[in-house]
Amino acid sequence: MSVKRGQRVTLQIEELTTKGDGLAREGGVEIVVRGTVPGDCVEAVVGRKRRGRLEARVQEVLHVRLSRKEPFCGHFGTCGGCRWQDFSYSDQLRLKEEMVRRSLAARDIVPGEFRPVLASPSPLYYRNKMEFSFGRDAVGGDLQIGLHVRERYNLVFDLEACYLQSEASNRIVDSVRRQAVASGLSVYDLKTHEGLLRFLVVRESKVGGGGVMINLVVSQYPHEGIDELVHVVTGEVPEISTFVVTLHTGKAQVALGEGEYILKGEGHIVEECGGLKFQISPRSFFQTNTEQAENLYRLIRDLAGDTRETDVLDLYCGTGGIGLHLARESRSVVGIEQTVEAVEDARLNAQNNAIENCTFISGKIEDVLSAVWVQGKRFDLVVVDPPRPGIHKKVLSALSDLAPAEIIYVSCNAESLADDVSELLLAGYRMSVVQPVDLFPQTPHCEVVAVLER
Ligand SMILES: C[S@@+](CC[C@H](N)C(=O)[O-])C[C@H]1O[C@@H](n2cnc3c(N)ncnc32)[C@H](O)[C@@H]1O
């Protein structure tokens, strides 16, 4: 029986999508039901079709597998962020483990050992970076600063408070909003590409007191109104150690740009992680949950075993987090990363931590990897930590040719991990260990570390 829009159906939720929504099957089609998890049974009304799947809205809950609790945030349901805050933290971990198990099983990957999810030390206020967007209220046109409405990348809601960063971060949002309104500053419009204010990025050191950095992304600078805003906001929030204004005139909605102006402080913060100090500039990638990143890096070091005689290749190395943690107990480390500023920071991080056996190369791995080969260097251990889409096909095939004894794959997307690992299994590897690590409590995202051995 085919399912039609507007129809009321009883759905047994079977799976989780990669976004953490429940998935049911009815009449030969897949139906996504927000706010449900496998084992739930609901009456729902079928809505529109998106990306090959129907969506349905819950009308009545017939059976819940995991009990829900009162959400702690007033933006729950609107915000794309903490979607799982109505589950206890232990149930969130259980769901994450199920997602990883399912992704591997769907590709017939059977790990030697599946370890339980490593819980985050802090389930709230754990983020060292938040990226807020500017927008306008659809009715009154008032300036807003907030996060994106779920699944609506061009719609922002006005943030009252967020429980993922610090209390200072909420005061910064509030101060910037008040001053922007007082000065009558305009908001960048995604359709007309006119207007000034685009993003407000707050980055703060969580360990060791290395400062709070604001990166305000605007479409025009120099600008007197911005100078005034910086003056007022830094006066109101004394925790701000550095204020950067990024000029971004392009149409792409990203918090990067063509010019950076440091209006207060050094233009970077310093974070401590695993006994090392990391300099983080506005463009650098750094794991957003510092305390749990420390556990992640320790785990990678433990999984790597005795590396004193090992040359390590750290692919997608960012500011060098993994490589620098391995370097102290390895013969050498080569890191490759596309973002020039992150590579500069990685080199500086090595220098500041008196680590001398690391080399960092900037460029897209698929372009520069062969040059590393040409130098005739062999690597016994390769660590890969790619972005969500996974490893570039060229890099996967180069890895198979290089054939290191061990690959440690760090992934923020179990689906792409499973796809890439399938290829590596064909090249003669086996997955000896898999360990999910929760870097993102309250959300359905989960980091996974997998060890592949020949
Ligand atoms: C998940 S982060 C890894 C960060 C790092 N391992 C750490 O722990 O801090 C992924 C990194 O890959 C980089 N990246 C993405 N695509 C790349 C490519 N094709 N070549 C090189 N680096 C790339 C991004 O700039 C980002 O820094």
Write a brief caption for the model.
This protein is an alpha/beta fold and 454 residues long.
Characteristics:
binds S-adenosylmethionine; 31% strand; OB fold (Dihydrolipoamide Acetyltransferase, E2P); 7-stranded mixed beta sheet; alpha/beta; 8-stranded mixed beta sheet; 3 domains; 454 residues; Rossmann fold
Protein model, in words:
The protein is α/β, with parallel strands linked by helices and 454 residues long. The chain has three domains: 8-63, OB fold (Dihydrolipoamide Acetyltransferase, E2P) (Beta Barrel); 93-122 and 285-453, Vaccinia Virus protein VP39 (Rossmann fold); 129-273, OB fold (Dihydrolipoamide Acetyltransferase, E2P), CATH 2.40.50. It is built from nine helices and 23 strands. It has helices at 89-106, 167-182, 224-236, 290-304, 321-327, 340-352, 365-374, 393-402, 414-426; strands spanning 8-12, 15-16, 22-26, 29-33, 41-50, 53-63, 113-114, 129-136, 143-149, 152-158, 197-204, 212-218, 240-247, 259-264, 269-273, 276-280, 311-315, 332-337, 358-362, 381-384, 406-411, 430-437, 447-453. The strands form four sheets. An eight-stranded mixed sheet has the order 7-22-23-21-20-17-18-19, with helices on both faces. Strands 10-9-8-11-12-13-14 form a seven-stranded mixed sheet. Strand 12, helix 3 (224-236) and strand 13 (240-247) form a beta-alpha-beta unit. Helix 2 (167-182) runs antiparallel to helix 3 (224-236), helix 4 packs across helix 5 and helix 7 runs parallel beside helix 8. The protein is globular. The chain starts with 7 loop residues before the first strand and ends with a strand. The relative contact order is 0.11. The site of S-adenosylmethionine has 20 residues, from helix 5, strand 18 and helix 7.
